[in-house]
Amino acid sequence: MRYSFKNKDGAILVEALIAIMVLAIASIVTANLIRSSVDGITYARNYMTASGILNETVEALTNMRNTSWLKYPSHPHCWSLANPYHQGAPNNCDSQSHIIKLKAAHSYALRYGADGKWEAKEVDVVGSGSLDLLNKPLHSDTVNKYQLWENTATGYWGHKDDSGTLPTPTGYYRSLEVLAFYPSAQNQQYATFKAKVQWKDGVKVMTLTEDFTFYNHLE
Known about the structure:
Elements: H1 8-71, E1 106-112, E2 118-125, H2 141-146, E3 147-151, E4 156-158, E5 168-183, E6 188-201, E7 204-215
Antiparallel strand pairs: 1-2, 1-5, 3-4, 3-5, 5-6, 6-7
């Protein structure tokens, strides 16, 4: 027994609608895959950049500590200076008012000046002055102090007030928190720090942190 469609035009229309539906579904799936791939590449790039900034923070603090040792060899307790490159006589750092020591429970913006020297610029106490893009306005005075700027001609990154040649703001923010000194502020044998990098991925605030310990081996 044979069956035949009396209305072939209607059958063709149904087949066309099915084909269009399949093509639409395939297009949506493909678009989502492409978008996911782009988002993944963007996230990976931002994460690698933030990781590099964190590593730079540890290297900068190492540089500052070692410079302090070299500048004050007879006073190893001067190892935790915020501005070890500041001009001054190579004597006890306690006797020089312009020499600044890092303070426990304070937050700093690391600066790499035009002279190629690192220093830590105090922003505020940890908590009220901490880097927090999630709960503080993006362009607030505190947050702005942590933002990194770029000279696109040289590739140099730093804070806006490092020099007058950093015209381009980046989307990255960095802070250095001094958690504590041990065993005391007077007898600083080692200290713990938290480095933090934040950036925005759309409306999301992304955060990368690293806690580390520095020792005063000369004590």
